[in-house]
Design a protein that fits this description.
By secondary structure, this protein is mostly beta strands. It has one helix at about 25-35; strands at about 50-55, 70-75, 80-90, 95-100, 105-110.
């Protein structure tokens, strides 16, 4: 079985009746990336810092060691479903990751001052 099915790493089913946006996470990323969210859901005008839960995972994504990574939303393209995030690899090194938003099943907002997840 291929990880890539119908142009998505998440294996969207052919003929499935899904919205063009790819779901609620994709729509939220579009709003966060374009700063169009009324009330600014996560951080009231600050860069949007989030933790990501990928489909099939029970814990937030961690790119180093065994701890969750805080990602900053950089951009989102609704046509390709590509979401671009940056994160700190070390105290002085920033990296970029690109994910298909259809592979993300959850977003946890992280307050920019404390670095701990916000309750929604």
């Amino acid at each position: 079985m291929s990880l890539f099915n119908n142009g998505s790493c998440c294996g969207n089913n052919a003929g499935a009746t899904k919205s063009k946006s790819g779901g609620c996470v994709c729509e939220l990323l579009k709003q966060l990336a374009n700063a169009r969210m009324n009330g600014n859901f996560c951080s009231m005008g600050q860069p949007q810092v989030v933790q990501l839960i990928l489909k099939g995972a029970s814990l937030p994504l961690g790119v180093a060691a065994d701890q969750s990574t805080d990602f900053t939303v950089v951009s989102y393209d609704a046509e390709s479903h590509c979401a671009v995030f940056s994160y700190l690899q070390t105290a002085t090194e920033t990296r970029t990751i690109v994910l298909d938003c259809r592979c993300i099943c959850g977003i946890i907002c992280v307050p920019p001052t404390t670095g701990t997840p916000a309750a929604l």
